[in-house]
Amino acid sequence: MLIYQSVNSIGKDRDLLKKLLKDIYEILHVNGYYRSLQDKKAIDSGFEKVEKIIKIVVGRIWWIIKI
Amino acid sequence: MVDNKNIKKIIAVNKINLSKNYLKDAKTLLGKAGIDPEASRYIDGKIVSEASKKAYLSALEALKALFIAKEKIDSSFLKKKIKNISIYNKILTELDIGKDKDFLLNLLKSVYDILYLGNYYRVLQDKKSIDSGFEKVEKIIKIVENYVK
């Protein structure tokens, strides 16, 4: 129950994750994968955002394990 | 007495100036979009979309200047607002400008994908992608300027 609550109450991280996911979808999936976009800065930015998501999620998981 | 060659040069210079003005307007507009530093993205999608469209048109105007300078298009092409990238690609591939041709083709593809499809149509708000698109428009203008002088 405690774990369920902690996953559902991610607070301000939810909005940030939603924004990051939208950008990743557009840059990496739509432009990178489908349209073979080769712009380095754009692709790097997409990868950076994936790293940000992983960082946020890892932080959450550690918080749950501590509980 | 102004001959035909000089007229074309004047038109090309006017086009490149128009292109610069479009880019300047686009940058001013983008400045109003606001930045979310945490997510590294612009806040106002509508402004991003409009600014990206202007920057894309700026790149197309710059290419028109190159086509005029290289005598590849006539006045009827200039009067139309052609946004179809395949027409520009086709004329670019016919130009004899050495390695700049491939460079311009790559830049145009990136500008089209990032600014027109990504930012204008799909309202991508990622800051680094948009900034990269704007940088590439600047590069196009810089290359074209060498041929228009």
Helices and strands, with pairings:
The complex is a heterodimer of chains A (67) and B (149).
Chain A: H1 2-8, H2 12-34, H3 40-66
Helix pairs in contact in A: 2-3
Chain B: H1 4-31, E1 35-36, E2 41-42, H2 45-69, H3 75-79, H4 85-94, H5 99-121, H6 127-148
Antiparallel strand pairs in B: 1-2
In short:
The complex is a heterodimer of chains A (67) and B (149). Chain A has 67 residues and is mainly α.
Task: Explain what you see.
With 67 residues, chain A is mainly α. Helix content of chain A is 85%, strand content 0%. Chain A has three helices and no strands. By secondary structure, chain B is mainly α. Chain B has a single domain, classed as Four Helix Bundle (Hemerythrin (Met), subunit A) (Up-down Bundle), CATH 1.20.120. A two-stranded antiparallel sheet of chain B has the order 1-2. In chain B, β1 and β2 form a beta hairpin. In chain B, α1 runs antiparallel to α2, α2 runs parallel beside α6 and α5 runs antiparallel to α6. Chain B starts with a helix and ends with a helix. At the A-B interface, α2 and α3 of A face α5 and α6 of B.
Fraction of helical residues of chain B: over 70%
How far the N terminus sits from the C terminus of chain B, by CA atoms, comes to: 20 Å
The helix-and-strand class of chain B reads mainly alpha
Bin the strand percentage of chain B.
under 5%
The secondary-structure element order of chain B is HEEHHHHH
Unreliable runs of chain B:
none
CATH class of chain B: Mainly Alpha
Q: Round the mean pLDDT of chain A to the nearest integer and report it.
A: 84
Main sheet attributes: strand count, strand direction, barrel closure of chain A: none
N-C termini distance of chain A = 11 Å
Give me the strand/helix succession of chain A: HHH
Shape summary of chain A: elongated
Overall structural class of chain A, as computed from helix and strand content, comes to mainly alpha
Portion in beta strands of chain A: under 5%
Using only CA atoms, what is the Rg of chain A? 15 Å
Oligomer: heterodimer
